[in-house]
From TrEMBL:
Residues 38-172 form the DUF2231 domain. The keyword Transmembrane applies. The keyword Magnesium does not apply. It comes from Anabaena sphaerica FACHB-251. This is DUF2231 domain-containing protein. It comes from the Bacteria. The chain crosses the membrane at residues 46-64, 70-92, 113-132, 138-159. Coiled coil: none annotated. InterPro entries: DUF2231_TM, UCP029509. Keywords: Membrane, Transmembrane, Transmembrane helix.
Amino acid sequence: METTKPNSTPFPNVPPMIESDDREYLDSGVPSTVAIAGHPLHPLSIIFPIAFLAAALGSDFGYWLTRDFFWARASFWLIGLGLVTGVIASAIGMSDFLQIERVRKRAAGWTHLILNVSILVFTALNFIIRWGNAESRILPWGLILSLIVGTLTSLTGWFGAELSYRHKIGVVGAGSKRYP
């Protein structure tokens, strides 16, 4: 479903989740503040915490179904790796948040930030409660925390995509960091 205006770039015919400004969608975009050769690092860095934390949720379910200690140990390590890589990804994202005014002017930017901080807090809590006895803490609290993190990860991914694709933030372009 695309709509086009004469002599313009096609744009989605899907209503925005929070807000929309066609001027932002139609301009060239704002490049990321943390990039190598113009390639933004935030989209690259988020794949690791997402993968680790999604796998931790899966291994928690594996433990719930089998009660095999392998799954408890796997969850502990996956949560730890998700936390470390999440802190790295959040530092890169925070650079864009602080240096690009267009991000701070959008509710999607604030929602993305708040959800990601929540994910890090819940992940740290999940890691701490498992420290020293990974197996006994999975049910019920570890699994519940992993479910919360999985849900929040899905939501924040939506808002991150809103920032990139609808508001053209963190893309190759010569747009204004303030306004299109």
